[in-house]
Each structure stands twice: as C-alpha cells, then as structure tokens.
Amino acid sequence: MIIIGEKLNSSIPSSFSAMQEKDSEKLTDIIKAQKDGGASFLDVNAALCSDEAETINYIIDLIKENTDCGIMLDSPDPKILVGCIDSCENRPVIINSVTCTERFDEVVPEVRKRLDCGADISLVVLPITDLVPSTNEERRENIDVAMKKLREAGIPDERIYMDLITESIATDTEAANRFFDSLTYTKETYPDVKTTCGLSNISFGLPERAKINQAFLSIALSLGLDSAIMNPASKDMLYAMYSAELVCGRDDFGMNYISYYRQAKEQ
Predict the structure, then answer these.
(1) Quick one: which H or E segment has residue 240?
(2) What is the DSSP letter of 17?
(3) Which sign, positive or negative, has the C-alpha torsion 23, 213, 220, 167?
(4) d(CA 28, CA 18)
(5) For 153-192, where are the alpha helices, taking DSSP H only?
(6) CB neighbours of 105 closer than 8 A, spacing ≥ 6?
(7) Is the pLDDT score of 267 beyond 80?
(8) How many CB atoms lie within 10 A of CB 236?
(9) What pLDDT, on the 0 to 100 scale, is given for residue 88?
(10) Which of 92, 116, 125, 264 has the fewest CB atoms within 10 Å, counting from its CB?
(11) Could you read off the pLDDT of 121-160 as tens digits, one per residue?
(12) Which regions of 100-243 does DSSP assign to beta strands (E)?
C-alpha cells in the first residue's frame, strides 16, 4: 500500500505551531519520522497559516533536503495547488484535491499540461458535486461523473486517486460501510484508478481512535485500498497494515511483514 504521511498538516496543533514559527528542526523531525515509517509521499497542508503558499514552499524545501519522498500538495486554494507544483522540481507530486465541481477547471488543465510534458504528477478527486453524497447510489453516480469529466479532460485513469470520503462513524454508524461499497465499486468499475482516503477521519470523536483506524484499514485493504493518508510513525498502525496485507495475499511469503518486524525490533 502507498503510505501518505499525514503529520505535516496545520490542523494538528503541534505542526501548526512549528509551521508558524518556521521551526526547521521540529518539522525535519516530523518529516524524517514519517519517511522512516515507510511513507512514499508526505502530505503538506498549511491552510491555517496566514502565509500558506510561503509555508508550503518552505516545507517542500525541507522535504527535499531530508528525504526522497514524493510530495502531496494539499490546499483548498487552486492557485496555491498549481503555484507550488514547480517547487517540487523532479519529485513525484500528488495534487489534493478537486471535486466534480470545485477547483476542477483551475487545476485539472494544469495537471494535464504537466503530464503532457512528462511530469510524474497525479490528482486526488473527491466524488462530490454540491453536497457529500449520503447513499451508496449517490456515491456511485458521483464516481461515474468524476471519472467521465477526468477522462474527457485527458487525465489517464492510472493518474487518478479517488478519495472515497471517510466520515466519522461516531455520527453515522453506516459511514464505513458506505466507504467500503464505494471502494468495491471503484475497484470493479475503474481498475486502473488508485483509491485513497484520509484514514483517521473515520474515528473522529471517539476514544481509542487508533484501534478503530486499524480495524478500518484492515477491512479496506482486504477490499483493495491502494493508499491512505495516515500516521506512518505509529508502530501499531504499521503492524495492522502489514498484517492485513499478509493475510489478504498482498505480501509474498510475508517478506514485507518480516522486514517491518525486524525494523521495529531495532527501534
């Protein structure tokens, strides 16, 4: 599974403080801990910072100095999403995100332009029109709408990350089941599309959130989840991931599980 580190996010108080203070040492520690945990990409979200674009570029420089990770640009502002791409230079980039309507026209043509020039760039899309869909049928319809628009815009399926929307089960008992239905539908209907989610959203508002996240991840992996924005610095979460991949037949002879076990024992 593709691990996308979640910790460089201004919604996390400690990360926000480090961003505001331009605390390179603390941010570098966060970056390295996620890389050491196996992250292939690091999500960078500075939406709560007054100097969002400047802060994102500052963190990108730290990532480039300290790891070989790809970079996920995460912002609600399409100008910032597009404007920060070139700062990533030759790193793999994922743009997070567009919906079926919001930011689509501003961001998608720029992604297509860079793909045409040979860039290693992908795009996260949430299957949302005006509102977050509340039924399995609405979610499936929105996935189809999103895919039709992206294909018409020339975005190859393999460059799409479909974010299947994790909502808290504290407020809606069926939230996880809707996610699993959307995941199954996407994998069956659009097999080359990558699937993803903001993993920790599922447990928001509940105690012992990590345990819920681990259970959710295990089920999602069994249904074919390709990636998740998650905490790769958590040994328990990584054990859950590697164990699930092993049990689901996604780890030949348990080599990834054994490698992680040895690595964890040394820490």
Answers:
(1) helix 235-247
(2) H
(3) negative
(4) 10
(5) 175-189
(6) none
(7) no
(8) 12
(9) 97
(10) 116
(11) 999 999 999 888 889 999 999 999 999 999 999 999 999 9
(12) 121-126, 160-163, 194-196, 227-230
Q: Is it the case that residue 241 has pLDDT exceeding 90?
A: yes
Is residue 13 a contact partner of residue 47, using CB atoms and an 8 Å limit? Answer: no
Angle at 143 between CA 141 and CA 148, to 5 degrees: 95
Pair 147, 193: CB distance under 8 Å: yes
The dihedral through the CA atoms of 87, 122, 167, 148 has a sign that is: positive
Assess contact for 186 and 140: CB atoms under 8 A: no
Structure tokens at 197: 């989610």
* CA within 13 Å, CB half, 107: 30
* Token pair in block for residue 238: 């990584």
Calculate the average pLDDT of the chain. 96
Query: Measured between alpha carbons, how far apart are the two ends of the chain, in Å?
Result: 22
Residue range 98-109, pLDDT digits in tens: 999 999 999 999
Reference 111, options 137, 126, 128, 92; nearest CA is 92
